[in-house]
């Protein structure tokens, strides 16, 4: 399957480099490019790519707001968004993930890492180390939590006991391999549990699962 990519980047030399790198891949196609925020929203809306490579700082509308509009809550069939920026700041990571991004890379990462990053998010996986996800989301946990849930309401009630165990370990920042070792089950079994969790909770990827675990207080609950 060919991965269709839209590149949202205001620097022409960087944009050209991305186009060259992606078009050289046998499994990728650059469907379009955009140099500012509004153009990015329009390009993604009309072209419906699989993956959007998103710069944080763009003219007229920043990449976080663009991400929120194309992949945020309520968006039907959103693309995967891979945020690429020069700024290694927790706040940007947090805001990008909250807006709906599936991954985060720095611009100084090798092009091969970026190419593989596109493949990673296209598969529905998150491109952010579990430990970084836990640190960033945990640091902003108070902001994530909404008003108290209705008494008796449990958004995670649809999960089986084993699935809740797996979600708790995801929220702790463990990778699939680490979860397999912790629960003494196979790697493939963990992947199956993760897939079931995402399907039952209607989530795109494990980053959203971490966010939900913190929002509901589940990540802090030892029960």
Q: What is the β-strand count?
A: 5
Terminal residue distance: 43 Å
Strands of the largest sheet, in order across it?
2-1-3-4-5
- The CATH superfamily of the largest domain is identified as Response regulator
CATH class of the largest domain: Alpha Beta
Q: Which geometry do the CA atoms define?
A: globular
Task: Briefly summarize what is shown.
This protein has about 220 residues and is α/β, with parallel strands linked by helices.
Explain the overall architecture:
It comes from [Actinomadura] parvosata subsp. kistnae. It holds the Pfam family Response_reg. Keywords: DNA-binding, Phosphoprotein, Transcription, Transcription regulation. The protein has 223 residues and is α/β, with parallel strands linked by helices. It folds into 2 domains: 3-128, Response regulator (Rossmann fold, 3-Layer(aba) Sandwich); 147-220, Orthogonal Bundle (Arc Repressor Mutant, subunit A). 50% of the residues lie in helices and 13% in strands. The chain has 11 helices and 5 strands; from the N terminus they run βαβαβαβαβααααααα. The protein has helices at residues 12-23, 37-47, 63-71, 90-99, 111-122, 130-139, 141-144, 161-171, 176-183, 187-201, 206-215; strands at residues 3-8, 28-34, 51-55, 80-85, 103-106. Strands 2-1-3-4-5 form a 5-stranded parallel β-sheet, with helices on both faces. α4 (90-99) links the parallel β4 and β5 (103-106). α6 runs parallel beside α11. The longest helix has 15 residues, at 187-201. The model has no long low-confidence stretch (mean pLDDT 84).
